[in-house]
Amino acid sequence: MEIFKWCIWIFLAVYIIFYICFFLKIQNKRRFLMINTAISLAVFAIINLTSFATGIKIPINECTVIGTLIGNLPAIGLFACLRYIFLL
C-alpha cells in the first residue's frame, strides 16, 4: 500500500507541474478552465451513462466529483483504473 501512496504523490506532482506550465502559456485562462471543467464533467457523465455496455462505473460522490473538477481527465482515468488496481 505504501508504494501506491508514493505513486499517487508522484503522479500528482508531475501533473501539477505540467498543468502550471501549460496554464501559464494560455492567453484566456478563465475560458480554458471553464472548457476543461465542462469537458471533464461531460466525460464523467458519459462514462457513468454507458457503464452498462463498457463495465466501467465510477461512483458519484464528493471525492470523485471534486477530483474530476480539480484533476480533469487524468483524474477520471485514475478513478477508472482504481477498480483494477484493487481488484474489486
Task: List SSEs in N-to-C order.
Answer: HHHH
Content-based structural category: mainly alpha
Average pLDDT value?
83
β-strand amount: under 5%
Rg over CA atoms, rounded to whole Å, is 14 Å
* Uncertain regions spanning at least 5 consecutive residues: none
Helix content: over 70%
Q: Biggest β-sheet: count, sense, barrel?
A: none
3D shape: flat
List the total number of helices. 4
- Total strands: 0
**How far is the first residue's CA from the last residue's CA?**
15 Å
Write the layout of secondary structure elements.
Layout: H1 2-25, H2 29-49, H3 51-54, H4 62-85
Question: How would you sum up this structure, described in words?
Answer:
- The protein has 88 residues and is mostly helical.
- It is 83% helix and 0% strand.
- It is built from four helices and no strands.
- The radius of gyration is 14 Å and the shape is flat.
- The model has no long low-confidence stretch (mean pLDDT 83).
